[in-house]
């Protein structure tokens, strides 16, 4: 279909939740680091953007892998196969990124040490949220795509096949 007309297969909610997961991991990172006594330096302000890049990359890999899995499989099987196929790649990139930053935390320059600790912890937390938070989001979205109201009650997003009119109905007060 045309761009924006097929809400059932649109991944806008997955993208929004994925970005929220990155935001949550950023808040958790700074909270843990402050709890550990790591000073937040001006260069640490780059960490949220770094985590956003890593998190969005992970999201693209996960969603593209899910799109290749046949819809005929159950939601659980699709999510399991998705993470089985792309989990290794995401784990390797996250592990090497985290390791590089945590090794960088051994330098003597205090501002860079704080940045590397923040970034290393952030990469680990982003990875964990991509495995857990995103899997739940993808499962709900998959159930919505299949239109299975018995598996997906009122807490799940239900989709129409095509848009029929404006996306938002505005009440003009009349």
Task: Write up what this structure looks like.
The protein is an all-alpha fold. Helices cover 65% and strands 0% of the residues. The chain contains 4 helices and no strands. It has helices spanning 12-35, 47-68, 75-104, 110-146. It is elongated and about 55 Å long. Mean pLDDT is 82; it is low at 149-156 and 165-172.
Summarize the structure.
The chain is mostly helical. The chain is built from 4 helices and no strands.
Outline the low-pLDDT stretches.
149-156, 165-172
| Biggest β-sheet description | none
What share of residues are in beta strands? under 5%
Number of strands: 0
Give the proportion of residues in helices. 55-70%
Topology at a glance:
Elements: H1 12-35, H2 47-68, H3 75-104, H4 110-146
Task: Please supply descriptive tags for the structure shown above.
mainly alpha, 4 helices
């Amino acid at each position: 279909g045309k761009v924006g007309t097929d809400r059932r297969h649109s991944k806008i909610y997955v993208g929004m939740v994925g970005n929220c997961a990155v935001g949550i991991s950023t808040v958790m990172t700074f909270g843990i680091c402050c709890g550990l006594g790591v000073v937040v330096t001006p260069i640490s302000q780059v960490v949220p953007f770094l985590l956003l890049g890593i998190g969005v990359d992970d999201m693209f890999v996960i969603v593209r892998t899910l799109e290749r899995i046949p819809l005929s499989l159950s939601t659980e099987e699709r999510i399991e196969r998705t993470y089985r196929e792309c989990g290794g790649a995401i784990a390797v990139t996250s592990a090497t990124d985290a390791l590089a930053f945590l090794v960088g935390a051994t330098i003597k320059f205090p501002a860079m040490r704080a940045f590397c600790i923040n970034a290393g912890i952030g990469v680990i937390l982003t990875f964990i949220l991509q495995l857990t938070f995103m899997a739940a989001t993808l499962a709900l979205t998959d159930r919505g795509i299949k239109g299975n109201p018995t598996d997906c009650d009122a807490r799940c997003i239900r989709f129409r096949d095509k848009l029929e009119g404006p996306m938002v109905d505005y009440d003009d007060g009349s």
